[in-house]
Amino acid sequence: MSQEAAEPQEKKKLPIVKILVMTVGAIALLGAGVAGGIVFMKVTKPAEENPLAIVIERKADEGHDAKKDDHGKDAKKDDKAAPAAPGGKPVPPVEKFVTTYFEFPGNFTTNLKGSRRFVQVSLGLSTQYDKSVIENVQKHEVAIRAEVLAVLGEQAEAEIAGMDNRKRLQNVIRDAINRVLTERVDFGGIANVYITALVMQ
């Protein structure tokens, strides 16, 4: 009879032990979760409190800013500033254009103003616009030749002699050619004219 009484008491104690073990386990899991959360919060604290995060953010910002120009727009990949020497400023990128040259076939020969001498000139020109400018020059070469000869015929002997006078003459001829092209096709586009040969006789 005493054995039978002892068995129900042991059976009653068994569920209590299970409940205690489960409760302790749940508290342990809850404690581990709280501890993990605290560790996570310390690792991911704001950048001002975490020096490693500040360095990472600064490097990311520098890499991002390198791709921006002064106005905050994306810079072109082709534009690369030269690296600065210690204590020096970097050379700013320069926009480059392709220059196309054209040389007139033959010479321009005419009498000089107020003189019995004549001048013979070979001319070339350049443009930084597309090939249509050169095509326009070739298409309207007769009108251009007439205008260039008119300009040369207005020059006195003294106005051709010397480097400064030749540079001035190149600019006058350039303006004359652009004027002809503008009249014919509404656009000049000639940047420079070059006297490649000049003979006075």
Q: How does this model look, in words?
A:
Strand 2 and strand 3 form a beta hairpin. The protein has helices at 2-43, 51-65, 132-139, 141-153, 163-185, and strands spanning 100-103, 108-111, 118-127, 192-200. It is built from 5 helices and 4 strands. Helix 4 (141-153) runs antiparallel to helix 5 (163-185). The protein is rod-shaped and about 135 Å long. Strands 1, 2, 3 and 4 form a 4-stranded antiparallel beta sheet that branches. It has a domain at 100-200: Tetrahydropterin Synthase, Chain A (2-Layer Sandwich). By secondary structure, it is α+β, with helices and mostly antiparallel strands.
The CATH architecture classification of the domain at 100-200 is: 2-Layer Sandwich
Tally the helices: what do you get?
5
Can you tell me the overall shape? rod-shaped
What is the oligomeric state here?
single chain
Question: What is the strand and helix layout of this fold?
Answer:
Layout: H1 2-43, H2 51-65, E1 100-103, E2 108-111, E3 118-127, H3 132-139, H4 141-153, H5 163-185, E4 192-200
Antiparallel strand pairs: 1-3, 2-3, 3-4
Task: Briefly summarize what is shown.
It is built from 5 helices and 4 strands; from the N terminus they run ααβββαααβ. The protein has a domain of 101 residues: Band 7 domain (Tetrahydropterin Synthase, Chain A, 2-Layer Sandwich), CATH 3.30.479.
